Amino acid sequence: MTMLMHDLYAMLWQPFVEFAFLRRAWVACLALALTCGPLGTLLVLRRMSLVGDAMAHALLPGAAVGYLAAGLSLGAMSAGAFAAALLVALLAGAVARFTPQREDASFAAFYLIALAAGVLLIAQRGGSVDLMHVLFGSVLAVDDASLQLVATVSGASLLLLALLWRPIVAGAVDPVFLRSVSRAAPAVHYAFLALVVANLVAGFQALGTLMAVGLLMLPATAARFWVRGLGALAGLSSVIAALSAWAGLLLSYHANLPSGPAIVLAAGGCYLASLAFGRHDSLRARWRRHPGTTGPARRPRAAALTVLGAAAAALLLAPAPQARAETVPPLPAKPRVVASFSILADLVREVGGDAFDVSSLVGPGGDAHVYEPTPAAVRQISSAQLVVVNGLRFEGWLDRLVFASGYRGPVLIASEGIAARQVFGAPDPHAWHDPAHVRRYVANLREGLTRLAPQEAAAIERRAAQYLQRLDALDTRLRARVAQVPPERRRAITSHDAFGYLAAAYGVRLVGVQGWTTAAEPSAADIARLMRQMQSEHVRALFLENTGNPRLAERIARDTGAVIGGTLYADTLSPPGAGADTLLRLLEHNLTTLTTAWLTAGRTATP
């Protein structure tokens, strides 16, 4: 029994006791749950469930404007998001009031306009990864400013709900009656919408836009299967939201899943369980009614006991974490270095050798542009003695993640000192495709690793020199291979515009279908321009990028008669043994793939 209690404690509470970032995440979700419960209940009661989703999407253009004006400023982005969503709500209400169109239809129209405007604003920045990670970011990266915003909005919302509860409920139950007895009915309606917007703004700072809607609506819809009274509905919705956040964070911790989706899936599980076993109007309640009657189900408490028993069984059957022998972990035998993605981790291993324990947040085959942090990543950073990043705005999600981990050690920017090329007004971060820039990476790593472990200085210097010799030898071989291709054939289209440094270094011409980030979507004009360019310049080879979506590139190849020349590696190494599992092999693979396709096409074209 004692062992069982210990395992339950280790599974259910130990992560929150041990890690501050999990406590911070749950506090943020708990603050949201206090107001999401009553607001979601009122939205369901007013038959405005989908309006919450519409207003959540309407945040996008305002947040984008705030970002363009002030960068990653919490105040500017929040103010812009609030203004945009509130404007959509006011316009939809005005259309419903002065025209025969229903409010839900006008909401749909204006939210679609706002969503499209937001996407276009983001596209003007070349697909800003930073903004996308804030809008759809991770609750694990909640910082003090975001937590203060959530707490302030939650507290103010509870106060306003307490003051306006009766008129808001009257407007939900009988809006005609409220309009007949009070001229303040429209103001009450818009005040309620403003509360919803404010909580969605606070929610997207923690969970992201879509995840905030899930925490707002799923608990409220689940609670209706259990209780009938309005106060009980609001209270139970808040409890379900808080428990869903707790369960989702635990699921994220133990199963190493992104936390936002895990929280919403936990809330979705509560909804499905309520739909199946709830006390009122659930599937089980309807099945257990007497034939010919419409009374409530027999033994309603059994349903609740069934849900609790199933939850307890799931927790007990889940693998328990190993008990820790001591609360303070021992110092590592080797300094721990965490690199943001696999290419940097390879360079750290090459320069540092076995003297360092090296790991990467985004492993081989992963796309750092759209990486979603997990609790394991936060723990990984918190236990490190050095964090190595690329810089040049490549890891837009990393600053918030480092803060959430409590890490206070050095952060080494591996690209420091590199003059970056500009793409769409932003620095191109893919500098590792030029061997000359790799030398700068190695110099920065050599200096940073030597500071971390001065006793290894001689070994670090020796390994760095040996690596640069291998890099120079590879560069010589690759230049000789490219020289075999006539200059007029050294042209190709790639599915990801990440090879500008490679093209400049080796005198080839590579044009990307997408912008420099895989989060950007090319326009019709971009595609048409590329297709005309391919036809006018007789470009016959098109290359895919290993982490991108190949459908668009394949469509262009079919329409232009080009051939898919192979797969290139841009932002990640391949899995071990797949031919591009180190940076040197990646460079050799990419140049060999390009030159082979060009030489083959040349022989095919020769009569």
TrEMBL record:
Its main location: other. GO terms for molecular function: metal ion binding. GO terms for cellular component: ATP-binding cassette (ABC) transporter complex; cell envelope. InterPro entries: ABC_BtuC-like (IPR037294), ABC_TroCD (IPR001626), AdhesinB (IPR006129), Bact_metal-bind_prot9 (IPR050492), Lipoprotein_PsaA-like (IPR006128), ZnuA-like (IPR006127). The chain crosses the membrane at residues 25-45, 65-93, 105-124, 145-168, 188-218, 230-253, 259-278. Belongs to the bacterial solute-binding protein 9 family. This is Zinc ABC transporter substrate-binding protein. It comes from Aquincola agrisoli. The lineage of its organism: Bacteria, Pseudomonadati, Pseudomonadota, Betaproteobacteria, Burkholderiales.
